[in-house]
Amino acid sequence: MLYPYSRSEECAWQPEEASRKLDALGGAGGVFYDSYYTRRNHSQTNPDDPRTIPPQNQSTLLTRGRNSADIRSLRREFGANALHGDAIDEPTETTNPRSRCLAGCKVLSPVAKAFYDQLKEPLIIMLLASASISLFLGNSADALSIALALTIVSLVAAVQEYRSERALEALSDLVPHTCTVLRDGRAIENLSAKEIVVGDLVLLSTGDRVPADMRLIDTVELSVNESSLTGENNPVNKISQSLTVLEGGVTTGNGSSDVAPTPPPLTDQINIAFMGTLVVSGRGRGLVLAVGERTEFGKVAKELGEVEARKSPLQIKIDELGRTLAYASSAGIAMMALVGYLLGRGLLETITVAVSLAVAAIPEGLPICVTVTLALGVLRMARHAAIVKKLPAVETLGCATVIASDKTGTLTQNEMTARSMYSPAFPFTFSLTGVGYDVKKSGGFIVRSMSMENMQSENSVESVIMPGQSRVTNQCPEYACLAALFGTASICNNASVAEDGKTLGQPTEMALLVGSKKAGVPDPRPTYHRIQEIPFSSDRKKMEVRCRPVGGSHSCLAFALSAKREESGKVISPDGSVYFVKGMPESILAECQTRVAADGSSVTLTDSEKARALSRSREMSGRGLRVLAMAFGPSLETLSFAGIIGIEDPPREGVVESIRSLHKSGVKVRLLQYASMH
What we know:
Blueprint: H1 7-12, H2 15-23, H3 35-42, H4 71-78, H5 97-118, H6 122-136, H7 140-168, E1 178-183, E2 186-192, E3 201-204, E4 213-225, H8 227-230, E5 236-237, E6 243-246, E7 249-252, E8 272-273, E9 278-290, H9 296-305, H10 313-342, H11 347-361, H12 365-383, H13 393-397, E10 402-406, H14 407-411, E11 417-422, E12 429-432, H15 439-442, E13 446-448, E14 471-472, H16 479-491, E15 496-497, E16 503-504, H17 507-518, E17 528-534, E18 542-549, H18 557-563, E19 566-567, E20 570-571, E21 578-583, H19 585-589, E22 592-596, E23 602-604, H20 607-622, E24 626-633, E25 639-648, H21 655-664, E26 668-672
Parallel strand pairs: 10-26, 22-25
Antiparallel strand pairs: 1-2, 1-3, 3-9, 4-5, 4-8, 4-9, 6-7, 11-12, 11-25, 12-13, 13-14, 15-16, 17-18, 18-21, 19-20, 21-24, 22-23, 24-25
Helix pairs in contact: 5-7, 6-7, 6-11, 7-12, 10-11, 16-17
């Protein structure tokens, strides 16, 4: 049975309609009611019992999930949730000698296949033929040496390619191993992702990987990182409403289920969660639409597996050499046989001399030199974290004239990093060293920018810095402002960074947390109780949280002074709570009347200071940074501007030097970047 619905139809479904459509694919041909009650009551003798009458056009997928009795038939009809057609793994007992033997065979089988593929090369075949002839003529030493050399060469190449294949199997790690599924009215946690079927109701939460393509039926601030599929690092906000697909784009609809003329692009399918993508925030539920190779991720994996393996320039040259030697040897044998016949030599003697000369003409050392050289190249590439699947591909790199590469996650770390900061109390900017989320590995601290334009024209005491010092510590006069800046960025944040470097949340928020740690500002969230949160939206372009200190004392002086602010002789925030806001600089500055001074107090924010802050923001944006502004105050009407932070996705170590080296060698490098509309 073929899956009957298109992606355009699935996007246009309302959640209830999706439940009915997918329930109709059940093993019984569509069960629009509770299977348990139906089967039990139909076996009774009272047909007038209302419980035996199935409600029309109703489905239990949203309340009870799939029935376990239908799982096997659904898997048989629409396939298992496994890539490359793999069957569902069955548990094996490793203590069983037969199981250990089978496990060993699974490892040896790819190596044996790779070894056999090496023996099919034309030059290798010629050497095997020469070894056989040498053995036939009684030259066992020559035959043994040739066979030993070929075995070593083929085995080295086979093992190296097998190791590369195992490294490339990391693609399957993007598919989750377990998930939470609702079946028979109960939630099953840690269910193997390979066991889910079409129509299963999957529960998603922050940190989960989506196990299959799903139609979302309800979401709560759900954001998904789809970089593994689209290459775009920005999280995508997901919704559960239906989409009306138009020629000019996709809009949210109100239940229209008309078939769209063309399926919407992946980036427009905002009510679909794709296999292998990561939930970075929020929670939701979804009904499985496609499993295995029918998913978008599975289609990519299938296409990669069907790529035609073309020969490299080196392999083509070696094949040409093999053919040339074969023709020359054949011609030599025929010539020697003719000369021997004309001179009256014996037939066996003439053939022996001719074959010996032909075997001597074949360079048995050539495959060894080529394989060893390529293997050394592969090992050298491996030291730089580059995986080479086939040995001849190393030589192909030397023939490249143009390299086109995606930027995010390829040339860059795919780890957002806070790089530049600006506080209105000082006329210069600050820089943050260190790259990536691992603070122990990369280190990092705040330094004053070396370009301090307009420094001489500033007469404020706040602009005075310690002479001869560039690094900012907690003993410097700038630290109070930076503590307020990074403290706001940490409190108005839903990400988390563990001590072992494991991160969870949106990349931008993780960059702010790691930046705070590098700046020496402890995460203040454990000392605050969050009372209210207004999440970020594309319309408001900001996020707001209201927090109260748990012990009554704030994490920095600026917050404490803000909580004590009075208006008309009364404290604005009697309970000591403070609003913390982050968002687009233009939006934040428009609501701020004061700013943070060097000592942490609040002073009037002038129009010239607003203009200077916007100028710094545009300067950071011009350098490719993602800019966020921070503010805090006892109420949303009395916010103090804390400053702005510029975040970037830094290049990988050695990328810039590599590009420069490629340019010097005549290779053109073109960077391809995909920009999402969301």
